Automatic annotation (TrEMBL):
InterPro entries: Glyco_transf_92. Pfam families: Glyco_transf_92 (PF01697). The lineage of its organism: Eukaryota, Metazoa, Spiralia, Gnathifera, Rotifera. This is Glycosyltransferase family 92 protein. Transmembrane segments: none annotated. The keyword Transferase applies. It is a single-pass membrane protein. It is an enzyme of class 2 (transferase). It comes from the Eukaryota.
């Protein structure tokens, strides 16, 4: 199954001022046909995308997964730190039933071990990304 949509991608670069000069805003519009990721030509290549630790952001997960599937990622690893309302597991179970192997969840909560990150709002983000590189 192949489908195409005519999409306009808008690219904005913000302006900034340095001591010597002002750099203007660049704005561009590009028409791009999007092609479904479910084409008949299956490739041996696969791209895995790891999240930084997910901290009460599961409500954005479906949009995040679908966008990244459109741009070519075929596996998602989610580092979960705090989702306790079963919203994440509902989303993951739905994807697992429809697309086995698409989403993996790694429970990433060090508070039970009594560990505290240097920056409390970071939730061991660097360590999670290193863990993903080693695992996948």
């Amino acid at each position: 199954q192949l489908w195409k949509l005519n999409q306009t991608i808008r690219v904005y670069l913000a302006s900034t001022t340095t001591k010597d000069r002002k750099i203007p805003i660049l704005k561009a519009f590009v028409k791009v046909p999007l092609v479904s990721i479910t084409s008949s030509n299956s490739s041996q290549e696969s791209f895995t995308l790891c999240t930084s630790p997910l901290h009460n952001k599961a409500k954005y997960l479906v949009q995040w997964i679908e966008f990244h599937r459109l741009v070519g990622f075929s596996k998602f690893v989610i580092y979960n730190t705090t989702d306790t309302d079963d919203y994440l597991s509902t989303i993951v179970n739905t994807y697992t039933q429809k697309y086995p192997g698409l989403v993996d969840v790694v429970q990433w909560n060090f508070s039970t071990l009594g560990l505290v990150d240097v920056l409390p709002t970071r939730y061991f983000q660097t360590e999670a990304l290193h863990d993903c590189l080693i695992r996948y």
